[in-house]
Amino acid sequence: MHHPAVPFLDLRAAHEPLRPRLRAALDEALDSSAFAGGPFVERFESEFARFCGARHAVGVGSGTEAIWLALAALGVGSGDEVITSPATFMATAEAITFCGATPVFADIDPRTHTLDPEAVEAAITPRTRAIIPVHLYGQMADMDPILAIARRHGLRVIEDACQAHGAEYHGRRAGTLGDAGCFSFYPGKNLGAIGEAGAVVTDQPELAEAVATLREHGQTRKYHHRRIGWNARMDGLQALVLSVKLEGLSEGNQRRQLHARRYDELLAGAPEVVAPSTAEGRTHVFHLYVVRVADRDRVLAELARRGVMCGIHYPVPVHLQPAYRGLCYREGSLPHAEQGAREVLSLPMFPELAASQLERVAHELRDVLARPVRLELT
Ligand SMILES: *Cc1c(COP(=O)(O)O)cnc(C)c1O
To answer: 62, 68, 89: which to mutate for ligand 1, most atoms within 8 A of CB?
Structure first.
């Protein structure tokens, strides 16, 4: 295929200027043989904890493992319920299921696509043990009311911050408001490895220690296993790469914010597009720039035909995934999440986007929306 006029994501553009430093990172890994865990992981952990404003960070193999091990370290297990958002990537719910607990979905606030605190409170039962707010698209969930509900009911709060590196809620960074914050460094995230990686951040030393033990087969000393764990270590090479890329994270986030503001301007006055909204007191880091449109699938296909590549995050809300049919949610049970899944469209968003590309995206989108449904004449 030809290069699209505007790709959805361009990781090569992000890595090209860093190539000499990334090659040096590989040399350092080869020279030291510190491949699985080890000193480079420890260094990145302290750098990332400092970036977030947390006391501890524990590097693991992925964001999915971060959520899973945070839940396990808090003692969430069989018979427990964990309330989360249906507007998320499957991993949030899978982690709950893999602990032996049951995910319970509460509806979202349609303006921010994050958990509606009132819906969370309504979903609490005697079995509820924890809440996982998801900071979707780069904007944090409404944490103050969620934390207040958790305190009232004695629940743990684990933030799914996999899309929100550096996002803020009244000046506090994602991952530091709940008991633990979980991050993914999947290549396309705002901070991405050149493979898989993740981390749990927390201020609680016992919790950090528990996650660190679980990621290493439950061992506290080599071949002495205090509990059943797993192999969920972070790679030394990924930690080296992440230390290099962490230096550019704040600038990357600022560029995303500028691009978002430009999209807002270019799309203003187009009544068929609902632009993303940022709630009062929150700093959005635009992992994704997500608009709502009617007839979304036609718009997506027509833009792709014109070389503007968009995404859908996510086309099926988690409560309606076939994998969770056993939970018996019906269509219509979480209407805001379901309407979101029908309407959301993620426009190209990455720090290296050019001004001309932003203009092209907005122009093509407005043009597609201004035309009546194309008649398919065969
Ligand atoms: C990416 C992501 C995850 C999972 O992270 P991985 O590193 O891919 O395992 C979990 N939750 C959300 C919201 C994500 O975007």
So the answer is: 89
